[in-house]
């Protein structure tokens, strides 16, 4: 569940939502928490890569 928070912050941050707004919506007092921990990794692209990997594995299993 916590990973979804990170992914959501990645998406909203890319969309231009300020760190102060993201921080407040997550219940953090300091926006530095968002910029230091949540926005340091692009969780959205990692999720998309993981999904592609799972699809490749499942598609390969269907062929066998």
From TrEMBL:
<dbReference type="InterPro" id="IPR011010">
    <property type="entry name" value="DNA_brk_join_enz"/>
</dbReference>
<dbReference type="GO" id="GO:0015074">
    <property type="term" value="P:DNA integration"/>
</dbReference>
<dbReference type="GO" id="GO:0006310">
    <property type="term" value="P:DNA recombination"/>
</dbReference>
<keyword id="KW-0233">DNA recombination</keyword>
<dbReference type="InterPro" id="IPR013762">
    <property type="entry name" value="Integrase-like_cat_sf"/>
</dbReference>
<dbReference type="GO" id="GO:0003677">
    <property type="term" value="F:DNA binding"/>
</dbReference>
<protein>
    <recommendedName>
        <fullName>Tyr recombinase domain-containing protein</fullName>
    </recommendedName>
</protein>
């Amino acid at each position: 569940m916590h990973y979804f928070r990170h992914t959501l912050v990645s998406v909203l941050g890319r969309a231009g939502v300020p760190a102060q707004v993201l921080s407040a919506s997550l219940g953090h007092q300091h926006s530095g928490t968002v910029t230091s921990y949540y926005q340091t990794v692009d969780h959205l692209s990692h999720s998309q890569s993981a999904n592609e990997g799972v699809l490749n594995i499942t598609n390969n299993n269907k062929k066998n």
